[in-house]
Design a protein that fits this description.
The chain is 66% helix and 0% strand. By secondary structure, the protein is an all-alpha fold. 8% of the residues are buried.
Length: 149
Amino acid sequence: MNKKQSKKKTQNKKKKKYTEKTSFANLEKTSNKVTTPKRSSSGIPKYVADRMARRIFFTAGIPTILGMSVFVISYIIVTRNIAEIPPSSTIAISALFFLLGLAGLSFGILSASWDKEPGSFFGIENIPMNIQRAKAAFKPATQNFEDKS
């Protein structure tokens, strides 16, 4: 059973009444305080990211699409009785294309030139320099870890 509340308790719980004008004014004050974060200059420039994306599309995207299409082509060949293909060879060929796509992903990232003008077609000369950049990016984090222990 619920007990009735005494008059003292209900009188202490006075509700604050806001007019429509003051409530919307307070709302506008709080909504104007949204700040945009400052961009850091330590990220990858947009032109480099676009160059990486194009390289990744060709070096990783095409082998990945071929890896998926192996299953479809194998299915068509087997169902139309053109040839008998063992499932293990279908999986092995597909895995080969997926591994080629994984290697292409790394190559696409590491071979992109960081200069304003694009580098060579394959970009092999940029790989050692980009590996050094990647190592340098992780170096401060490992130094902090070593200092604490």
